Amino acid sequence: MNMYLASFARRTRSLWGYLSLALVAAFLLAACGGGGTTTTSTPTATSPTPTPTTVPSPTPTPTVAMVKIIEQNGRYSFQPATLNIKVGTQVIWTNTSDAPHTVTSDTAAVFGSPANITQNQTFKFTFTTAGTFPYHCNVHPYMKATITVTS
Question: Is 78 among the domain residues?
Fold first, then answer.
């Protein structure tokens, strides 16, 4: 008799487990709700309201000018030595020689590389004011060039 009660209890627990699982599954399906009532309406003729659109203004692409630091016939130089640009132009100096160089404004604190520019390194500066800006290399003082910035 004891064995019969144990078997009955085990079946009852299994039944309650399956029943609970089925009940949870039913709640999940109901919560996800696939079925609902749908209503249909009779369409009425309305004219579409025009949506105002704004045409984005093109973002100006920044202008970039390149200056190379070169070695030619045993002498270093900035190429081009004279450069004419507009306000807002970024100038990128690239050292293509094997020696270190600087880009230093002749007018103190206007612009200048923070350290020596070694081979294949660059220095960038954006000119925001009009004017004539002579510059040189501190390592090789004979290297001179000029940038003229117009508005």
Answer: yes
Query: How large is the average pLDDT for residues 115-136?
Result: 97
CA distance 19 to 39: 35
Residue 44 belongs to some domain of the structure: no
Identify whether the C-beta of residue 92 lies closer than 8 Å to the C-beta of residue 64. yes
Pairing relation of β-strands 64-72 and 122-126?
unpaired
With 0-12 / 13-18 / 19 or more C-beta atoms within 10 angstroms meaning exposed / middle / buried, residue 103 is buried
| Amino acid identity, position 123 | F
**Strand 144-150 relative to strand 64-72, pairing:** unpaired
pTM over 0.85, yes/no: no
Please check whether residue 107 lies inside any domain of the structure.
yes
How, if at all, do strands 90-95 and 64-72 pair?
Answer: parallel
